[in-house]
Write a structure and sequence with these properties.
16 strands; alpha/beta; about 525 residues; elongated; ten-stranded parallel beta sheet; four-stranded antiparallel beta sheet; F-box domain-containing protein
Length: about 525
């Protein structure tokens, strides 16, 4: 078997494939190992140029910038001699473009790269820009002019370069004032990662709190102009019909003011719509909520016109080339379900969702989705624990519309629903074996953890080798008894039974419940 040294000496071009699996530190270590590795490793290090520190060791200052070193190399050896001629990916991250770390500007590297872009001396296939928004604020006079000029030159380069075979990765805070002034063509963006920041900024006026959290009843409401209180939603644990008089008129001791209850903020939705309408070449969209300390102030609640949230949902649904959609954290409202475009093959939902959200999810067909992940949390953005109420009244899901998923992961959905994992197994015949066993394991864990009557009844159905009997109760999406997939195939039922048996305490628990019912 050929050693790495033999490959470096005899077939150095094969090293490029090997180096794709190494991080920059390992590549640099290999570069120092011998002259046979130097040329290939040197080109690889410059191929993916990261203008920020990666893996800073303990003996280095955590904010030490690499920008002066890159500039010194370019000035000494030129574009080709330094390795910049091999650069295909330029990644400018938080340390490069944020005002807290201005070395990228003050070292002169920002101006240098701008001139090279303007002169057409760089051949880039990928540009990653992260957190440039801070430099676009009016009070960032120290770095704003240079960053804006650099971004303008980058925009000109993107227009000339075209979108074919090119990737523009953009990570930014979803600030309406920034979105409408992005100084480069949004049609070039292929990878968009938005962070939803609901905090009240340092220079924003502090509005009176208008969100109210009733801890004893798990409802969320807003105080509209004129003093009228409007209930927006109840958490999955309770529905409107389940509330008693105490829930409608709670004691003052039950009232606590909470921060992030942002529902349909009109300015943000409008800015998002305008931005997404221009990202016609977008392939990856991730929208996540920024994490903050629980004692910060958050923006005042404002209800947008009813049509605006629908327009945003339709805008996302109509992105023509989208391949991956991720919604992580709270996206305006726990009931606000986003249907992915038909082109999407991978979907991730991760957050706090209501019964209505899960109902919409179960009715969505996800026509071309092959990889689906849903993670439910009972801890909202501020760390407020909602577990006990959520688990009191779960939504029974007996069927789903999606049928083409191959890889599926459900995390903690048993806190809000019953039967979702079984419905996914039953309807998606093409699931990988790992996904089937993972979902069956989720079902077994739910039987182990919860004492819900419906959960235990589902467990009883799989104790005997015979197919489970039909159920008369009205459940979400229930199929008629003559449905083609009304019964489980024997192999799948055996797998679920084995998962129940192999999970500690589950089989005994189900048997005990059966004996008690007899």
């Amino acid at each position: 078997m050929a050693s790495l040294e033999d490959i470096g000496r005899r077939i150095p071009e094969l090293l490029f494939d090997i180096l794709e699996y190494l991080n920059p530190q390992d590549t640099f270590s290999l570069l120092l190992a011998g002259k046979d590795f130097y040329s290939v490793c040197h080109k690889q290090l410059w191929k993916d140029l990261r203008v920020y520190k990666v893996g800073v060791s303990n003996d280095e200052h955590p904010h030490e910038s690499i920008s002066p070193k890159i500039l010194k190399s370019i000035d000494a050896y030129g574009v080709e001699g330094s390795g910049l001629g091999s650069t295909r990916s330029l990644r400018l991250h938080r340390e490069s473009l944020r005002y807290q770390a201005p070395e990228f500007v003050e070292s002169g590297l920002c101006s240098k790269l701008g001139l090279l872009l303007e002169g057409g001396e760089l051949e880039l296939d990928c540009v990653e820009l992260s957190y440039f928004c801070s430099n676009m604020k009016s009070w960032q006079k120290r770095t704003k002019p240079q960053i804006l000029l650099f971004l303008k030159l980058m925009g000109d380069y993107l227009l000339e370069r075209g979108t074919k075979g090119f990737s523009l990765i953009l990570t930014m805070t979803c600030d309406p004032g920034i979105i409408i002034d992005v100084p480069f063509p949004l049609q070039s963006v292929t990878d968009l990662r938005l962070e939803m920041d609901w905090t009240i900024g340092l220079f924003e006026p502090l509005n009176a709190r208008s969100s109210r959290w009733v801890s004893g009843t798990q409802r969320v409401s807003v105080i509209r102009a004129g003093g009228e209180e409007q209930v927006l939603f109840s958490l999955p644990g309770l529905r409107n019909e389940d509330r008693g008089n105490d829930a409608v008129h709670p004691d003052d001791s039950d009232l606590t003011t909470q921060a992030d209850q942002c529902v349909f903020n009109h300015e943000i939705i409008t800015a998002l719509i305008e931005m997404l309408l221009q990202t016609v070449n977008l392939k990856y969209l991730s929208i996540r909520t920024s994490k903050h300390q629980p004692d910060v102030e958050y923006k005042n609640l404002r209800l947008a016109p009813e049509s605006t949230p629908v327009v945003l949902r339709d805008t996302i649904k109509n992105i023509p080339k989208l391949h991956t959609l991720e919604i992580i954290g709270r996206f305006f409202h726990p009931s606000y379900f986003i249907t992915p475009p038909e082109s999407v093959q991978r979907v991730v939902y991760d957050g706090f969702f209501s019964h209505e959200w899960f109902e919409r999810f179960s009715r969505c067909s996800f026509p071309n989705v092959r990889d689906l992940r849903v993670s439910f949390t009972t801890i909202n953005i501020e760390g407020l624990w909602c577990g006990p109420s959520v688990e009191q009244n779960k939504l029974v899901i007996k069927d789903v519309e999606v049928t083409g998923v191959r890889r599926c992961e459900l995390i903690a959905v048993g806190r809000a629903t019953v039967g979702l994992e079984l419905a996914m197994i039953k309807r998606n015949k093409g699931l990988t074996e790992d996904s089937k066993r993972r979902l069956a394991g989720v079902f077994a864990k739910n039987v182990q953890r919860f004492d819900d009557e419906e959960v235990l009844r589902r467990g009883l159905e799989f104790m005997s080798p015979s197919p489970p009997s039909s159920v008369d109760e009205k459940c979400l999406g229930e199929k008629t008894s003559d449905s083609d997939d009304a019964d489980w195939d024997e192999e799948t039922r055996d797998m679920i039974r084995e998962c129940l048996k192999s999970t500690p305490g589950v089989w005994e628990k189900v048997q005990r419940v059966r004996d008690e019912s007899d």
